[in-house]
Specification:
binds zinc ion; Threonyl-tRNA Synthetase, Chain A, domain 2; 17 strands; 2 domains; Elongation Factor Tu (Ef-tu), domain 3
């Protein structure tokens, strides 16, 4: 059967962790079986900005059950499948479909094309990543707020009206279960944009304390969070919206999230410099409600 040239339908943005789906194609990538389905609840790694890691879970077919190795984004032109970093075409390119590639173990059961399969996401792992991702975005807003007085020129602002240090300086973000690690470059280009890092090293504990006090207030307030979804396809735009007392933040985001800060009892950050001293590292942790 040819590979699909249409975008996968995805249900993880609405919180789904279980779907029955039809196998459109089974193929291989790096000697591992890859299954493409008409729809999926699996959140895939996005190779363009791989902050949130793969969902875990099980694909069950008549051949048996297999634990997913990973779900990642692929692109096909109907004859060939490119996966992860190997995707070079832009989304929306005519004749190309963007798909969720379900990568299976090479020694496990593989479903047949056209078969109906059950896709079951590990809901506990998903919830932990959602907490980590939400905490990551909220912590970034707190960091923006406490660094606002270090900007000497007008800069792009976040939804709360603070210069958007997070977006202007970030170089990488890794979402973990109930945690996140963000790395920011404090180089010449950030200083040119107006950021003043003078004496920041000595000030880091005080900066973290102020951010953590803000986070206590925001988590206690239980801000609501929505994911606005423009359509059902993998490639449709999704926007993370968080309504905090100081304002509403709206950013494009392909990840999964909590629906309210009420689902947490705490978000906390730690700040440090990397060994060279040119990068600031923010480590964020989220404490789920009911977990002490
Ligand atoms: Zn995000």
């Amino acid at each position: 059967m040819p590979l699909p040239r249409t975008d996968s339908l995805v249900t993880y943005p609405t919180g789904s962790v279980l779907e029955q789906a039809t196998v459109l194609s089974t193929t291989t990538w790096s000697e591992q079986p890859v299954v493409l389905t008409d729809l999926t609840p699996f959140h895939p790694v996005d190779p363009r900005w791989p902050d949130q890691g793969t969902d875990l879970g099980i694909l069950t077919s008549a051949a048996g059950s297999a634990n997913l190795v990973q779900a990642t984004i692929g692109a096909t032109d109907g004859s060939e499948l490119f996966v992860g970093d190997h995707v070079t075409v832009r989304r929306g390119t005519a004749g190309w479909g963007f798909v969720v590639a379900h990568v299976l173990p090479s020694d496990g059961p593989v479903p047949a094309e056209g078969e109906s399969v059950m896709l079951a996401v590990d809901a506990v792992h998903r919830a932990a990543l959602s907490a980590g991702h939400t905490a990551c975005h909220v912590a970034a807003l707190a960091l923006n707020a406490v660094l606002a007085d270090r900007w000497r020129r007008p800069a792009d602002t976040d939804g709360l009206g603070n210069p958007d240090f997070d977006q202007l300086a970030i170089t990488s973000s890794v979402i973990k279960p109930f945690a996140a690690v963000d790395t920011y470059r404090l180089g010449k280009s950030l200083r040119k944009k107006g950021f003043d890092p003078t004496d920041m090293h000595a000030a880091l504990p005080a900066i973290a304390d102020r951010a953590n006090a803000t986070l206590v207030r925001w988590v206690t307030g239980g801000a609501p969070i929505e994911l606005e979804i423009s359509g059902p396809r993998l490639t449709d735009l999704r926007t993370w919206v968080c309504r905090l007392p100081e304002g509403t933040q709206r950013i494009p985001c392909g990840g999964t999230h909590l629906s309210s800060l009420r689902e947490l009892t705490a978000i906390g950050i730690e700040l440090s410099y990397d060994a060279v001293g040119s990068e600031l590292v923010m480590t964020t942790s989220a404490t789920p409600a009911g977990r002490g």
